[in-house]
Structure formats: C-alpha cells, structure tokens
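User: Need the bound-state model for uracil:
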Amino acid sequence: MREITLNTPGDFTEWRTAARALLAASVPPQEVLWRHAGESGSLFADSAVLQPQRTVTLPRELVTIADRVICHRDASVPSRLYRVVWRALEDRRLLERRTDPDVDWLARMDKAIRRDLHKMHAFVRFRRLGDGQQGPESFVAWFEPEHRILRLAAPFFRKRFYGMDWAILTPDARAIWHGEELAFGPGGTRDEVPDSDVVEDQWRTYYGAIFNPARVKIAAMRAEMPKKYWHNLPEAQDIAPLLASAEARVERMRETAVSLANPRSDKWRARPGEHAAEPDTEIGSLDDLTRALKGCTRCPLHCHATQAVPGEGRAEARIMLVGEQPGDREDLEGRPFCGPAGQLLDEALAEAGLDRATLYVTNAVKHFKFEPRGKRRLHQNPNTGEIDICRWWLDQERALVRPDVIVSLGGSALRGLTGKTASIASMRGQAHALEGGTRLVATVHPSFLLRLPDRDRAAAERRAFVSDLARAKALAEGLLTGTRNPGADLA
Ligand code: URA
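Assistant: Bound-state model below.
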C-alpha cells in the first residue's frame, strides 16, 4: 500500500504532483491511502520511490474540474478524485458518461464548489481599516465558506478591487492583495475584522436602493442569501424592515411606474403648476441648493436612486460642464463624474489645458435612472420629460454660478440647457448664445467615447472632444479679456 500525505488540504498543486507520480508509476487507486498531515498513518506503508512507467496526459476539462473539487471538505475527495483520473486515463470519454457513479459524484462535488464560490463572490463584505490617511486605503473581510475555496475565489476580488489593498480572512486561510501578487497565508479569526465601519452605510444605502419590493420572493431570497451569511452583511439588518414596507413600496411603484416609462412618452413632461412644490427654503447659494436638492421629489426617479447628486466645483467658475445624469458610482458617492466617464473627462480636460478644480461640473438630471438587472443597475437614458422637470435645478445652478461658458456633454445636457431636442452634430464646432449671454459649446458625452469599439474612430472622436473643451477654454479666456466670440445665437 502506498501512503500519500497531503500537508495543505485543498491545495491542487500538491495533490496533482502526487497523483501524477502515482499514475506514471501505474499505482492503482485501491493501493493508495490518501491522508492529511496529522492523521495517523499505516505502519505497513510502502515507502519505495515511485518509478515512472508511462507518460500521463489527462483531459483538460477533468483537470479544471479536479482543481475545483479538491477544495471540497469531504475527506474522501483526494482518493475518489484519484480513482476518476485513473479511470480517465483508460477511458478518454469517461466524463461524457453522466450516469457513471464516479462521474455523477464528480459533478455533484463540482456543483457544491461552484455554488459556494457564487455565494462567496456575492456575500463578502469589506470593512475599512484605519482612516486611509497614510498610504492607500486597506480593507479586510471575514468569510466562512463551506469549502476551502479561498484560492479559487480570490482572483475575482483581485479583479474587482484591483486598486485597493485588501485581505480576506477565512478559518482555513487568508488571501492578501497589495496590488502586485495575490498572497495566501494561514487562516484567521472573526475578531481580526472590525464589526462595522463607514463603508457599511454605503452598502446599506446601496442595498436599499436596489431592493425591488415588486420582485421579492422570500423563499428564493432565503435560498440565495442563506441566514448563515447574514452576520457578515451590513444590509441584513435592513431586510426585515424592507420586507415589512414592501407592499407599500410596490403600491408607490405602481403609481409612479418609473422604470416602465416610455422614453418617448410625454407623461412626465413639465407642465406649469404640475410639479412638486419648489423647496420652501430660499436658494441663495450652492449650499442651499445642495440641501434643498436632497428632498427633491419632482419626478419619480427619486424613488429608486440612492440620492440626488448636486453639481460640484467652484461657485465662481467661468466654465460649467453639464452631463446627463449620475451613473451607478455617482449615485453611491453623491458626486458627479466620479466613475469611468469622469475619469475619461478628467483626462480630456487635462489635455485641453483645463483644471477640473476651476470648473463647475453638474448634470441635467440629478437622480440616477436605472433598470435593476440581477445585482446590477443598468443605466437608462432619462426621457425628455424627466430632463425638463429637472431643468429647474439646472437653472438654479446656472443662476448661482453664472458661468461665461457652458459645455453640454451629450444630448440630454443639450436638452436640459436649451429645452429643445437638437442633434449634437448640428450644434458642434461653434459657440451658441444662451439666454443671459452665456456661450454654449456642444459636444459629445464621455461615455460615448468609452463605448466606441473601433480604436481609430475612438481616437479621432477623443481628439474632437478635447478640441471642443479647448474651444470652451479659449472662449472663456477671450470673454475674460473682452474679445467676445459672437458665435451663433440660439433662438
Ligand atoms: N455620466 C454623466 O452624465 N454624469 C455623471 O455624473 C456621470 C456619468
């Protein structure tokens, strides 16, 4: 009898090295005793060096599955897996024989691992460590997977949270990411991870926002989010109150039916006197505006968004940029253009010689409009009615900042600024006069540039975008020195 001791349960490399040597030496499964370090061994184990007698190649699919299944906690896995690979050497089509007991066993084990992975991807919650003042912010999470899947799960988190330092602790092992190489270390304990932090509020706000009461199926929800994970989930404490208020929220959704709104419909078009009342407090400053905007219920978009996102920047900015509406990231952070479109915008501004800190940046619509799709929130364009209703806020911002030049980023911004639907192409390349003498430079939205698949076209469009921004800069500087560019007036 051969005895194989595995030092690290769930370590595929260790198991594979042993299994390869055994296969190459033609040692049949019934002659191998697999044990984990610490378990008592056999006194009669054969310790002679294995002599390779053949070369071993296994079907790639089987290797991929074995890599996962070795993480299963069932103690019989190393030996049963060896039996499967032993048989697969003789029978290359073994995996196709679904009713074979070994193949059926393999599929069940694999399913359990994949399910556990899915849960881990969904339910890991990071807590912030320290205040992030020194060095990059770091985060830590505690998770108790059913199986030893940390090695399989960690690359998902590396991809998703590439830019931050984090560690995930489980009872078996820990994964650590500092931006270079994923490292693994010994298991941890729950008390190494703080109980709560500021990020918690963001999770709860986000969960509250994506919670769709009309789609609640409690049994399915419990199956998807089993109670054993709830203690790690900041949002879990909100589940009961959200469920309790679900019926009333469904009723409210029925009344407002925002995600069903036909983008071409006039349903929400502003009609005099039809709006929610303007805020009671007088808006004399951008701070007043930010406060008042928090309570905005002028259109149904507020029911689903996390928060209204006000503009940001210098109150005396000479140039104002107007985008469409906050995206997913902006909705959570409460700041305009802080997501991927914002990154591109910042780069283009720098290329045009503009410093964002000197500008005022806002959106035509202040609440994020989206369609829930699984766990994701898919951006939806605001319709003209929503843009027109939100124009009231944009007008307040314009009156407070009184910029010399406004750059409209995309069609919704153009609508929000002019009250008319016009094509960007027809407005581009020259400055237009808005009421009050402000000049308007119309250009595309940065998201448009992000979506272009053709590299040459994307590069050309980006150059045109930068040159529109540079035109706004030149215009603002010209106005400053009194050399006005008359442009073409907007009716
Ligand atoms: N797109 C916008 O139009 N505005 C934002 O703030 C972010 C993305």
